[in-house]
Amino acid sequence: MKTRIIKDPRILAGKPTVAGTRIPVTLVLNLLAHGQTFDDILKEYPSLTHEDIKAVIKYAEKTIEQANSKDSHLVITTHEVPRR
């Protein structure tokens, strides 16, 4: 199985990136969070694959699971702004 997410201190100061690119995991997650579809992201970043984007999501899931297993008290609050 190909390792799709890497942390290399020589690439973006060791931030998690998609292997073979300089595309950080946080960028892909941010694009998804702001409504971009897989197809939108693949058009904008042709070096990515559908499997890379799924790996980013899985990496985020595993990271959250690890934080929770350490009895972390991570809480993220979102507030919806009423539309006028």
What's a concise summary of this model?
By secondary structure, the protein is mainly α. It contains three helices and two strands.
Description:
The chain is mainly alpha-helical and 84 residues long. It has one domain: Orthogonal Bundle (Arc Repressor Mutant, subunit A). It contains three helices and two strands; from the N terminus they run ββααα. The chain has helices at 25-33, 38-44, 50-69, and strands spanning 5-6, 17-18. A two-stranded antiparallel sheet has the order 1-2. The chain is globular and about 40 Å long. The mean pLDDT is 89.
Tags for this model:
globular, mainly alpha, 2 strands, 43% helix, two-stranded antiparallel ribbon, Arc Repressor Mutant, subunit A, 84 residues
How would you sum up the global shape?
Answer: globular
Fraction of residues in helices?
A: 40-55%
Q: In the residues, how many domains can be counted?
A: 1
- Give the C-level CATH assignment: Mainly Alpha
Spatially, the strands of the biggest sheet line up as 1-2
User: Beta fraction of the residues?
Assistant: under 5%
Low-confidence stretches: none
Q: What is the second-level CATH architecture?
A: Orthogonal Bundle
| Class by alpha and beta content | mainly alpha
Number of helices: 3
CATH topology: Arc Repressor Mutant, subunit A
The CATH homologous superfamily corresponds to Winged helix-like DNA-binding domain superfamily/Winged helix DNA-binding domain
Largest sheet: 2 strands, antiparallel
Number of strands: 2
How far is the N terminus from the C terminus?
49 Å
Give the topology string: H per helix, E per strand: EEHHH
Give the integer mean of the pLDDT values: 89
Provide the gyration radius in Å.
15 Å
